[in-house]
């Protein structure tokens, strides 16, 4: 029996790595006729306005997804409270219940957890649905 992928979720924080993952997830979801949920984790600093960087733009995420071939109406932006791995993992649970999680990589050191990045490693370890880690 082949599993159907009806909805893909991708972690997005506005970084180059997350943009690469978003483009990959958008192209895949479009080719499958699946919906795409772009998940941005909103942390305490961002919520309080104390973050040193501007939050990523939902419009930019939508633009990237459409350029990668996804239909505008099949893309949903989700701003989810909490740490990035937790926010993304929650989308695999009801009521969201996505079928596939996509994350980018981050890091430069020799330790595998740093090469993948702590978020991608944690998502891969804890997810109950398939996970794709897209290299930069």
How would you describe what is shown here?
- The chain is an alpha/beta fold.
- It has a single domain (7-36, 46-134), classed as Rossmann fold (3-Layer(aba) Sandwich).
- It contains 6 helices and 5 strands, in the order βαβααβαβααβ.
- It has a 5-stranded parallel beta sheet with strand order 3-2-1-4-5, sandwiched between helices.
- The longest helix is centred in the N-terminal third of the chain and has 17 residues, at 16-32.
- The protein starts with 6 loop residues before the first strand and ends with a strand.
- Mean pLDDT is 86; it is low at 107-115.
User: How much helix, percentage-wise, in residues?
Assistant: 25-40%
Written as H for each helix and E for each strand, in order along the chain, the element string is: EHEHHEHEHHE
CATH superfamily: HUPs
The overall number of domains is 1
Number of strands: 5
Q: Looking at CATH, which topology would you report?
A: Rossmann fold
Q: Output the number of helix runs.
A: 6
Strand content: 15-25%
Strand order of the largest sheet: 3-2-1-4-5
Mean pLDDT: 86
